[in-house]
Design brief:
There is one protein chain. The strands form 3 sheets. Strands 6, 7, 8, 9, 10, 11 and 12 form a 7-stranded mixed beta sheet that branches. A 5-stranded parallel beta sheet has the order 2-1-3-4-5, sandwiched between helices. The chain has a 5-stranded parallel beta sheet with strand order 14-13-15-16-17, with helices on both faces. It is an alpha/beta fold. Helices cover 48% and strands 19% of the residues. It is elongated.
């Protein structure tokens, strides 16, 4: 049962207090009496009042002085005050009362109906105020619960990311190494199946982790200068073999007005473009898939870039198109059985495009083909936009040998990294944990340190911090430290840079990934 509102009534005559209570007896409130200003002040420190009805003329401390003290005391919660008086009915006293902080002034003899009406108004306001405070408290509690839930979800995602990517690194890494050894054709076919299956599984894992991060509002875009042309060419390079296997021609068209260097999140842009192009290749056989990039002039301070992925594949019925960008949706059971997929890729792409202040959509006809399009806003890069970059040359061993320290506690990951680094022609030393790595860096000058994050004894963050502090104290040149980790969340990457790491490589990694990172 809710507590009744309290009204403070102050008068130096007891009979006047009784009269006030009689007038207001139908309001279902609790009265707190005070026979003086000092007694009134004492009550305000113990109770929360909805309203005060205070007489002006009292000995020792009049009503004006009492209200001034109440209003100026930070320990007393504000409540409205109505003055009553049999003497001070002149205008100057009414003004004085209002200036003191009162909300109304009633002259005696009191007309009951007028007092009852005024008090009801302030009681209603007080009840509304309490309801609002209760609502705000509930919202605050709900917000804190949601934030705690998001934090737990973030920690769970980080753990799951690490636990899943670590064995995936073993599967993909071993298949990469096996490809470089003498194999029969049958063995090579089996290794290729293992490699393709591992990479397909990794795509699914990344989709699940991404959709969870999007739902939790945990995806934050980077804002760095990058080569837009190179991003598009990488898509062609990555999907070229798959397109050829299905008898497709994969083409890239970039309008000359499109700036080569822009500012934004290259990884997420590549993710969107790769998803759309991969779908186009998957649903097209013996046809053509085009990536068209154009410049949209919208007179803004940023570049509005338009992307279209055009295919002449199976196409999509109009009634099915509304399902495309929804989570876990498939066009129909036949399509799902024949082509597979989680139904997450397009939903993730839509969320990423919207984070880039863009739009995404599709135009399609069955048995004719589809055009998936999107546009995003990208910043203006300070780099010149005149020079064209070439596609990277095939990966081979590096011309100069590096002395590399691998800091890794997992034996499988050690073997994979050792095999890849030796294949690239570099020297390698292994440390089982961060503490050992710190000691090694103090006694030997390494060219590069590949630093795992989660390790026993001392993790990669603390090890890197200790190495940087030792280098500073001893005026040593800073060794290049690259995070080599299964933690794939953006906050992990930021933390790596904060402690002094130079680069970030996510497990599972390939030979091309390590070579690119070492040469960066």
């Amino acid at each position: 049962m809710p507590l009744r509102s309290k009204i403070l009534i102050v008068d130096d005559k007891r009979e006047n207090l009784v009269a006030l209570e009689v007038i207001l007896k139908d309001l279902n409130v609790e009265f707190v009496r005070a026979l003086s200003g000092n007694e009134a002040l004492a009550h305000t420190l113990k109770h929360e009042f909805a309203l005060g009805i205070i007489d002006v003329q009292m000995p020792d401390m009049d009503g004006f002085e009492t209200v001034e003290l109440i209003q100026n005391d930070p320990n007393i919660s504000y409540f409205p005050v109505i003055f009553v008086s049999a003497i001070y009915n002149e205008e100057q006293y009414v003004v004085r009362g209002i200036e003191t902080g009162a909300v109304d002034f009633i002259s005696k003899p009191i007309i009951p109906q007028i007092l009852q009406g005024k008090v009801r108004v302030f009681l209603d306001l007080y009840e509304q105020k309490k309801l609002l405070e209760t609502s705000n408290r509930e919202l605050k509690i709900a917000k804190e619960k949601a934030e705690k839930k998001d934090l737990l979800k973030s920690l769970f995602l980080a753990t799951m990311s690490h636990e899943i990517r670590t064995p995936m690194n073993g599967i993909i890494g071993v298949s990469e190494l096996l490809k470089q050894t003498p194999l029969t054709q049958d063995q090579l076919d089996l290794v290729n199946i293992m490699s393709i299956s591992g990479n397909n599984l990794l795509v699914i894992i990344n989709d699940i982790l991404d959709i969870s991060k999007i739902e939790a509002g945990q995806i934050k875009l980077e804002n760095r200068s990058f080569d837009l042309y190179n991003v598009a060419k990488e898509i062609i390079s990555m999907l070229g073999i798959k397109a050829k296997d299905q008898g497709n021609k994969l083409v890239l068209n970039i309008d000359k007005e499109v700036p080569q260097y822009v500012v934004g999140d290259s990884m997420r842009l590549k993710q969107i473009l790769l998803n759309l192009t991969n779908n186009a290749v998957k649903f097209t056989e013996n046809g053509k898939v085009e990536i068209n990039i154009s410049y949209i002039d919208d007179k803004s301070s940023k570049h509005k870039i338009g992307f279209k992925v055009v295919d002449n594949g199976i196409g999509i019925h109009k009634k099915e198109q509304s399902k495309l960008f929804k989570q876990f949706s498939q066009l129909n059971q036949t399509t799902q059985r024949e082509y597979g997929g989680t139904g997450l890729g397009l939903a993730i792409s839509k969320s990423l495009v919207e984070l880039m202040n863009g739009e995404i959509g599709v135009d399609s006809k069955p048995k004719v083909g589809s055009t998936f399009w999107f546009n995003v806003m990208l910043g203006v890069s300070e780099k010149a936009n005149s020079t064209k970059k070439k596609i990277e040359t095939p990966i081979e061993g590096s011309n100069s040998s590096l002395d590399i320290l691998l800091v890794e506690d997992n034996l499988i990951n050690q073997k994979i990294a050792i095999g890849i680094i030796k294949q690239l022609g570099h020297k390698i030393t292994v440390a089982d944990n961060g503490e050992v790595a710190v000691d090694m860096c103090k006694t030997k000058d390494f060219d590069v340190v590949l630093m795992d994050i989660q390790m026993p004894v001392m993790d990669g963050f603390l090890a890197t911090k200790n190495i940087r502090e030792w280098e500073h104290e001893n005026k040593k040149q800073a060794v290049r430290i690259i995070a080599l980790t299964a933690n794939a969340l953006k906050e992990d990457k930021e933390k790596c840079f904060d402690v002094g790491m130079n680069d970030f490589l996510t497990k599972p990694f390939k030979i091309t990934d390590i070579k690119s990172c070492l040469e960066g």
